[in-house]
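Progress note, project year one: complex with pyridoxal-5'-phosphate.
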Amino acid sequence: MRYVSTRGKAPEQGFLDILLSGLAPDGGLYVPAFYPQVAGSELDAWRSLSYADLAAAVLRKYAADIPPADLEALCRRTYTAEVYGHGRADSDATQIAPLRRLEPGLSLLELSNGPTLAFKDMAMQLLGGLFEYALAKRGETLNILGATSGDTGSAAEYALRGRRGIRVFMLSPHGRMSAFQRAQMYSLQDANIYNIAVEGVFDDCQDLVKAVSNDLEFKRRCRIGTVNSINWARVAAQVVYYFKGYFAATRTSDERVSFAVPSGNFGNVLAGWIAKQMGLPIARLVVATNENDVLDEFFRTGRYRPRKPAETQATSSPSMDISKASNFERYVFDLVGRDPAVVRELWWELDTRGEFDLAGTPWLDRMRSSGFVSGSSTHADRIATIAAVYRTSGVLIDPHTADGVKVARAHVEAGVPMICLETALPAKFADTIVEAIGRTPERPAVYADLEARPQRFDVLRPDVQALKRYIEARVNP
Ligand SMILES: *Cc1c(COP(=O)(O)O)cnc(C)c1O
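Model obtained:
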């Protein structure tokens, strides 16, 4: 499989080449040159595979430059009951992503039983293994630099801790994360993890990362890389659980299912779109947003209008508080018939006018028939949904998943199972859960003493030179 840029002006690359890089050199995103088809007897054969072997089967189609035996070994080391057994006490950890019935026609795909109790572990743990594999093969090392307000950073750290050839420098806003989030990251004692608490807010952290990344000479000298949501391998690893959810909800491969996905950067639901392009019988892909409804607006009207940071609200489903959706360009590329000239034109409009609108173009009808529907949720909806689901099913869901369930309900069709993707466990968002049901959520046993564990971090002023000195001293001593 070769990868092409959505903007059409970058050289084609292989899976391992794009694994360690970010944007394509022409500013686009790398996408597979075509979508491999899985149907008939192959789809039937996948039904009985373990999660690890299913992952290897899916990824083999995208990672042609990794020998199948290596890929299978990587997947079997990653998708174990040990790695994905951190979640609900009554979950079947051997299933990796078990399906839990909420009410007739609606179930929950449990994706939050990994080490950081959020769905990002599903792909990130594999990415850690892939990075280690690719670097060893090339005899290279890599230093990951990132900024986090909580979730993404901890998923990356838990995926990369103890890996050979990799260091992680993760910036977080000093004193501005929840005690749980702070403890989750800062309690890691692995020598290759550097937690840097910046005296500032999340935007300061992001600005520092940008400033360092713009210094190309420094970046090269210190071998700086990133793990962000546009990483193709992450998206590919997420495709796997759509197949898993489908098999769990159906008995034969002529049935259809729909998925509801709490969305931010459009990475999670993009993986569903790709599964559908591969031939998985998906009826609807329900995009659920919170008050930051950029994506809901697009799927209702065809108008894509990213918000300014100041227009982006801080909500009680914080991991969906985005101003623009970084993976969205990959879907638009498919929507416009994979014509990079059209993508370039749309993104030129976006850069000059701040938005584009598909109304009056042939792409609007295509969007309407692509299976995507959408809706948004408010704080009040979230609270009511958490309380109602708990009352009727006894299952406690987190605020992001609640946005998914709320929007899913408006799009259920008779005879088509609706699967809502669980994006985090309620234990991570205790305040909102207390507001909804009047008590704190249970915490998985492995995290019982989390805040009491010793913490390891360095405090830094928001100063680019200080950050560069900090990194240089550790990578080129
Ligand atoms: C990352 C995240 C999301 C958003 O997923 P995208 O792939 O960015 O659309 C939703 N919920 C939780 C809990 C997350 O961590």
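The chain has a mean pLDDT of 94.
The pocket of pyridoxal-5'-phosphate is lined by residues 118, 120, 151, 229, 262-268, 319-320, 400, 423-424 (CB under 6 Å).
No further modelling is planned for this target in the current period.
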